[in-house]
Amino acid sequence: MNLSTFVLLTKEIIQRMVEKKTNNKRKPLRWIIGFLLLLIIATGIYAYSVIFRPIDLEETIYIYIDEKKRYEEVVLQLKEKDALSSEKLFDMLAQRMNYPNSVKTGRYAIEEGMTMPDVIRLLRSGNQTPVNLTFNNIRSKENLAGRISQQLMLDSLSLLNLLNEPSKAKELGLNEQTILSIFIPNTYEVYWDTGTDNLLKRMKKEYDAFWNENRKSKAEKIGLTPLQVSVLASIVEEEATYADEYPVVAGLYLNRLKKGMRLEADPTVKFAVGDFTLRRILYSHLEVESPYNTYKNTGLPPGPIRIPSITAIEGTLSPTTHQYLFMCAKDDLSGRHNFAITHAEHARNARAYQRALNERGIY
Question: How far apart are CA 320 and CA 140, in angstroms?
């Protein structure tokens, strides 16, 4: 029975009782007063039952409160997600608990069984639920900023500007070219309202933890610093489609570095040109002036050409021992490679690959 039905029924009962007492003029007034008291009590009982009634939800819902911290928007989210049995009673209680003046940013989990006071206390306390931040397959700062802004409250442009800020990179012991190295692709628990500055500090902390003594020892063994490993791993991952080739490709590039040969890695040319969709590297591409063009510059480029995955980093830290100096995509266009020790052997592989591209009309 809802409140309106209860009130109507009570009124009818009182009216009948009043009709039976028409000979006594004072009794109707008493009955009316009694009715009003009963109505007040009934209203209170009803309100109490609604306020403390457990919220009925099929699954946990999340409320997101941004930097505007508008109370009305919080109520609207609760209403749209069917977490309010009575908007008016919620507002009365929220006002009583001074929540409209205590709205805090964040992501809050509203769970089955919570009551209105539970919800208000949670939102007022700022005890938010972390977000599982993930990012992978990232090739640029713009790509990274966009991916992260889709998961956190922060603005992508603000993050991008910070990633390009020389003083911030220097503060982290990096520069604008190497700053992406601190972003190790993984899943991180962070608060939804984490700011850009705190995010970078968190990523640097995770980066330092990732580069433990074991990995540092492996890097030293192959003659590279952790930052250089990240740079080489980024090239390895762009070059090899399949993870089982990572150690082989890494070993090949390390062989070239030891001999003082240019890496001549096609992915670095794509990065320099600004087009990773290139299926065929032309001579005009090889002439582009860029410190990332490893056909024109000896050694590693100044920074990673993508954010390398942990798998690529591990593959680079554990390179296969061999004598290969050359590699070329197989002519079956499977994404795998033919490896060669001599230039003559490599030339044969390259001709077969070029022929396959011509036959398929790929230019």
Answer: 29
Residues 271 and 313 in one domain: yes
Angle at CA 224, nearest 5°, toward 221 and 226?
105
H or E stretch at 9 = helix 3-19
CA distances from 162 to 30, 48, 168, 170, 185 (A): 74, 51, 7, 12, 19
In this structure, the chain runs to a length of 363
Rg for the chain, CA atoms, rounded? 34
- Are 195 and 233 in the same domain? no
Cα–Cα distances in angstroms (integers) from residue 289 to residues 284, 292, 351, in the given order: 11, 8, 26
Classified as helix, coil or strand, 337 is strand
Last residue of a domain, one of 14, 30, 51: 51
Which residues have CB under 8 Å from 264's CB, separation 6+? 256, 294, 295
Indicate whether 30 pLDDT > 50. Answer: yes
- The per-residue pLDDT of the chain, averaged, comes to 89
CB contact at 8 A, 148 and 156: yes
Whole-Å CA distances, 123 to 70, 129, 208: 12, 11, 34
In a domain, 181, yes or no: yes
Residues 101 and 47 both lie in one domain: no
pTM reported for the whole predicted model: 0.84
Q: What is the DSSP string of 190-216?
A: E-TT--HHHHHHHHHHHHHHHS-HHHH
Residue 26 has pLDDT above 80, yes or no: no
* 218: its two tokens: 């492996």
Domain that holds residue 44: 3-51
Q: Which has the closest alpha carbon to 318: 242, 234, 241, 254? A: 254
**Is the domain of 234 the same as that of 306?**
yes
